[in-house]
Design goal:
single chain, 286 residues, mainly alpha, 58% helix
């Protein structure tokens, strides 16, 4: 439990330590952090435990990168989903379209979005939902058992699939499995590729594999992972989709040379994000 703002700031300053994303704190401490160290607002937005009140506050940020990060959170309330689904930035709306918990009516709304990428992603997600609904579902009593069972290591593909179908269960993002099981999941249940890409524990080999996925939503999720290899950074920095390149520009571990490269990107939003990130870096790094 974080007790003060400086404690969280010191965690964020340790490059090899990613535990800042899981630290808990009271609402008062989060507000203190945001007030004292506005430069680490992104780290707060990326934290998995921030309360609803802080999520609400950050969803109204003037910084697109903050709103975009908030838009990926599964525990958004209806009001936040409504607000961000009509955000003036297409990348934020795209995040809402890809959010695993986006309400169906908002998803339908986004299929008519004026931005082609947003509309495409919303339509693609609807297609996947319809495909999933056609599959035979397990009896309710068995699913309930799976939702309450604490799993430390996934042992087969169906186990991971049942966890993903658990409604309010978000444990799928932290489940561990050997490389062979992740490959089995991707082979048997390709509709779960975004859930695999969202998992925090997948090995480097799976990250590399997903970084060349045909699905922009998958590459988009991979592009924000802090432990990308140099080859993955290089590949995704020139991805054909601007939203993927924008994620690389916002990646906390993006190499400086790639960041400079992205300031010259043909897409205005990508270039702007890269320039903003460079401007936030200490002068000795930039």
């Amino acid at each position: 439990m974080i007790k003060n703002a400086i404690e969280f700031k010191e965690l964020c300053d340790i490059d090899s330590d990613t535990t800042f994303a899981y630290q808990q704190a009271s609402e008062e401490i989060w507000l203190e952090i945001l007030k004292t160290y506005p430069e680490i607002t992104m780290a707060v937005a990326s934290n998995k435990t921030i309360p609803d009140s802080i999520i609400e506050l950050l969803s109204t940020s003037s910084d697109i990168e903050i709103r975009w990060t908030i838009a990926t959170k599964r525990k958004l309330n209806r009001m936040t989903f409504d607000r961000l689904s009509v955000d003036n930035d297409a990348l934020v709306r795209h995040s809402i379209a890809c959010n695993p918990k986006v309400p169906r009516d908002i998803l339908f709304q986004l299929t008519q979005d004026p931005d082609e990428k947003v509309a495409y992603s919303a339509n693609r997600k609807l297609e996947k939902l319809q495909h999933a609904n056609k599959e035979t579902k397990q009896p309710h009593i068995e699913k309930t058992y799976m939702n309450t069972k604490k799993i430390n290591m996934i042992t087969n593909a169906i186990e991971f699939k049942e966890i993903c179908e658990g409604g309010s269960n978000t444990n799928f993002a932290h489940q561990q499995a050997p490389e062979e099981i992740w490959l089995e999941i991707l082979n048997r249940y390709p509709e779960l590729d975004t859930a695999v890409a969202s998992n925090k524990t997948i090995p480097d080999s799976i990250i590399e594999l997903l970084s060349i996925s045909d699905d922009v939503n998958v590459r988009w999720r991979i592009a924000l992972k802090r432990r990308l290899s140099r080859s993955a950074f290089d590949r995704l920095a020139i991805d054909k989709d601007a939203s993927v390149r924008q994620r690389i520009a916002c990646n906390p571990k993006v190499p400086i040379d790639i960041l400079r490269q992205l300031t010259q990107d043909d897409d205005e939003m990508v270039a702007d994000s890269a320039k903003k990130k460079l401007a936030k870096l200490p002068s000795s790094e930039a």
